[in-house]
Design a protein that fits this description.
Elements (H helix, E strand, L loop, with lengths): L1 E9 L5 H17 L3 E17 L2 E13 L1 H13 L3 E8 L6 H5 L45 H6 L8 H23 L1
Antiparallel strand pairs: 1-3, 1-4, 2-3
Length: 186
C-alpha cells in the first residue's frame, strides 16, 4: 500500500449534504479496496483562476489516505464519471515528507472580489544601475565653409550672420513692408 492525497474541486452549487455524500462514497471506495483514510480537510470555496464549466468558484476538499494502486485507479475512475467533481488530482505522498505539517492548516482564503493592490504585492528588488561607459573617441575638427554674405541675407534659417549682413537684413523687411501696405490702401 502507498500513501496518497487527492484534492477534489467540487461544484460550488452543491449543498453541504451533497458534498458529504460524495466524500463518504469516496471513503467507502478506499476502505472497500483495503485502504484507510487518514484525514479529510474541507478547504471551502475558492475563486478560480479561470472559469470551468462557466463557474468562477469551486469548493475544495483534501483527502489523505493509504491504498493499493488498483483502488486508486477505481477512485479516479468514479470521480471522472461524477458531474459534480469539476477537477481532481491524486498525488503519491513520499515517506518523511513535510506534507502533514503543511496540510494541517489549509491556506488562508483569498478575498473573492478584491484585486491585489500594489502594497500587497511582494517588493521588487532592483540592482543598482552602473553608469554607462563614456566613449572617449577623439573629436576631429570639421571644416565648414562660410556662406557668402549674399546667401546669408536671403536665408532666414541661418542662425549666425555676419554683422554687416545682419544690418542689411534688418533694413530690408521694413522696406518690403512699406510697398505691401501701399498696395492695400489702393
Amino acid at each position: 500500500m502507498n500513501d496518497y492525497e487527492i484534492l477534489l474541486m467540487l461544484d460550488p452549487e452543491l449543498s453541504e449534504e451533497q458534498q458529504g455524500t460524495l466524500i463518504a462514497r469516496t471513503r467507502e471506495l478506499i476502505e472497500k479496496g483495503g485502504g484507510t483514510v487518514d484525514r479529510h480537510d474541507a478547504w471551502g470555496r475558492r475563486k478560480l483562476a479561470y472559469e470551468i464549466r462557466k463557474k468562477g468558484e469551486g469548493t475544495y476538499h483534501l483527502l489523505l489516505f493509504s491504498c493499493g494502486a488498483e483502488t486508486l485507479d477505481e477512485v479516479s475512475r468514479v470521480l471522472k464519471i461524477d458531474d459534480t467533481v469539476m477537477r481532481h488530482m491524486a498525488v503519491r505522498r513520499t515517506a518523511g515528507g513535510s506534507v502533514d505539517i503543511a496540510i494541517s492548516q489549509p491556506p488562508p482564503p483569498e478575498p473573492v472580489s478584491a484585486a491585489p493592490t500594489r502594497s500587497a504585492r511582494a517588493p521588487v528588488e532592483t540592482a543598482p544601475m552602473e553608469p554607462a561607459p563614456e566613449e572617449t573617441a577623439p573629436v576631429e575638427p570639421v571644416a565648414v565653409a562660410a556662406p557668402a554674405s549674399e546667401d546669408v541675407a536671403d536665408d532666414p534659417v541661418v542662425a549666425s550672420e555676419p554683422a554687416e549682413a545682419a544690418d542689411e537684413s534688418a533694413d530690408e523687411p521694413a522696406a518690403a513692408a512699406e510697398p505691401a501696405a501701399a498696395e492695400e490702401e489702393e
